[in-house]
Design goal:
The chain is an alpha/beta fold and 552 residues long. The protein is 43% helix and 15% strand.
Length: 552
């Protein structure tokens, strides 16, 4: 048996806070339904694909009578995709709602992610198992996986598992792709009149599963606070040693929410926002020049040190490189077997030169060999470049170093440039959830059960007014189809939940943009320190800076 740390023991005793409407007898909570909804785009195509679940209304919980809440039911839960702090509390919320409704109801956990429901690999979650994971990080209670639920054969396997165990509801805890799969599964079950409800919960530390109704995905709060602690530590070290530039790559392939939030918390000298690079159509050379310019200006003040934050997905947002990656994804999806037969980089280059457009071929040839190899690694489950493996921070260090060396020869740079590279990724995915995420996740899980008790399928659990204290939050659910559009995946058009990018006219980015020129030249570092769980509200119960600015 593993040894428990003092903090782990203390966190077991923490009772997550619930919104006022969810407090009290669960049979006294009912749903108030709004008007029919529409998808954000491609409405007619999506309506035809989701004939049984499209257009459902927004649901909000209010005090009222729900006699069905006391029925004995069995529910299955899936953890899908990468880990995010708070996942265990989502399951705890489902478990407590289910057992409070009817102690004879059962919660099953599908082991290893979506594969568990397809392979009938599950475990019953009882009090002893649940209590060992409350308020802790990780997904290790049942494990996670990246298998997809997207084919009729997989849906039939899932249906067979649910029928075998008399499961009438499935909760999928995942990001945009996982919840897209959940929407398709809900539609399949509805078309089959299977009587099985499917509910999603918004998970991703990247923060890109958000919209008008999903104010933030769970795990984002904890992850960014964890990264900001580390960034603050490095800033303190940089300001002490005064001789190193630290280039820190942060998770967030498809959006720069993590980088922006960490910048607002720590005030680094440089924070590149991928969406701004794309909007301004900046070339790789212009990005390098911009970074070098800050380093030169600080060196003129005798400040040969600093901190630069680099979003994981930056390279895809540089238009010339993004076009190359798009072409690579498309060509390699359509010729996967042949490409895998090419054993050397030279053979791959020769074939690509024949397949790529002239501009993309030129960009690919101009990249360092190490970056070329990283671009051609095995694809992710969606057929895309595994951007997290591309060492963008090292690429920028190398190119900025060359630029500064040339400037030194031209007598335009008299400082020194010694750079260190870091990548903060896995460090934030399984941290003990902050009080915010512990409360938020518990509320999401509790709400998922209430949606299920009302037989609302194809919904995602959501909570509004998250900038307020937890008892003032507004829980409910919204239909997954209203978040969807059609996008190209594996070379063909697929229905997917649209990712949310950093909005350049949004309040968080504007707050950052208003201060970054000062942060660039002056040393304005802030040091958030470690996540606190006990103490005054301003220390241990604050939401992210992003939420504060968005809801100001």
């Amino acid at each position: 048996m593993s040894t428990l740390s003092p903090l782990q023991k203390a966190r077991y005793a923490y009772q997550p806070k619930l919104p006022a409407v969810l407090q009290g007898d669960i049979k006294d909570i009912t749903c108030e339904l709004g008007e029919p909804t529409q998808a954000i785009s491609d409405q007619e195509e999506l309506k035809s694909l989701f004939a049984n679940t499209y257009g459902n209304p927004i649901a909000r919980f209010v005090k009222g009578n729900n006699p069905k809440a006391g029925e004995k039911i069995n529910i299955g839960v899936i953890l899908s995709g990468g880990q995010a702090p708070g996942g265990h509390n989502v399951i705890a919320g489902i478990f407590d709602g289910l057992k409070k409704s009817n102690p004879e109801s059962k919660l099953y956990g599908f082991l290893g992610g979506p594969a568990g429901i397809m392979k009938d690999n599950l475990v019953e979650i009882d009090d002893e198992l649940m209590d060992a994971y409350r308020n802790t990080g990780g997904f290790d209670i049942i494990g996670s996986g990246r298998d997809k639920l997207e084919t009729e054969a997989q849906f039939e396997q899932s249906l067979a598992t649910c029928k075998k165990h008399d499961i009438s509801g499935v909760v999928i805890i995942g990001g945009d792709d996982s919840n897209t799969n959940g929407a398709v599964l809900a539609e399949y079950f509805a078309a089959k009149d299977a009587g099985i409800t499917v509910i999603g919960c918004p998970k991703t530390i990247d923060g890109d599963l958000k919209n008008e109704y999903i104010e933030t995905s769970f795990g984002f709060d904890t992850a960014t606070k964890t990264y900001s602690e580390l960034i603050g530590n490095i800033e303190k070290d940089a300001n002490s040693a005064k001789k190193y530039w630290h280039f820190i790559k942060l998770m967030g392939r498809s959006a720069s929410h993590i980088g922006l939030e960490c910048a607002l918390q720590t005030q680094p000298n440089i924070c590149i926002i991928s969406e701004e690079v794309e909007a301004k159509k900046m070339t790789l050379k212009q990005v390098v020049d911009q970074v070098a310019d800050v380093i030169v200006k600080r060196a003129e003040k005798g400040l040969n040190f600093g901190v630069a934050l680099i979003p994981e997905g930056l390279i895809e947002f540089i238009p010339e490189v993004g076009a190359l990656i798009s072409e690579l994804n498309d060509k390699m999806a359509h010729h996967a077997d042949y490409f895998s037969s090419l054993k050397t980089l030279e053979d791959q280059q020769e074939w690509l030169n024949q397949q790529l457009s002239k501009d993309s071929s030129y960009v690919f040839s101009a990249l360092p060999r190490s970056i070329q190899e990283q671009l051609l690694m095995d694809r992710d489950p969606h057929g895309n470049v595994q951007v997290s493996r591309i060492e963008t921070e090292k690429l920028l260090i190398e190119m900025v170093g060359h630029k500064l060396a040339q400037m030194k020869l031209e007598k335009k740079f008299n400082g020194s440039f010694n750079a260190l590279a870091h990548f903060f990724g896995y460090e934030g995915r399984c941290a003990f959830p902050s009080n915010f995420d512990a409360d938020y996740c518990y509320t999401l899980g509790y709400s998922a059960f209430i949606l299920m008790s009302h037989k609302l399928t194809g919904y995602i659990s959501n909570v509004a007014s998250l900038q307020k204290p937890a008892d003032q939050w507004v829980p409910g659910g919204c239909p997954l189809t209203m978040m969807m559009n059609m996008e190209r995946r594996h070379g063909s058009m697929k229905p997917v939940i649209k990712k949310a990018l950093v909005e350049l006219d949004g309040a968080p980015f504007k707050a950052f943009a208003a201060q970054r020129d000062q942060w660039a030249i002056e040393t304005s570092f802030t040091f958030p320190g470690a996540i606190q769980y006990y103490g005054p509200d301003e220390v241990c119960n604050q939401p992210t800076e992003t939420l504060k600015h968005e809801k100001a």
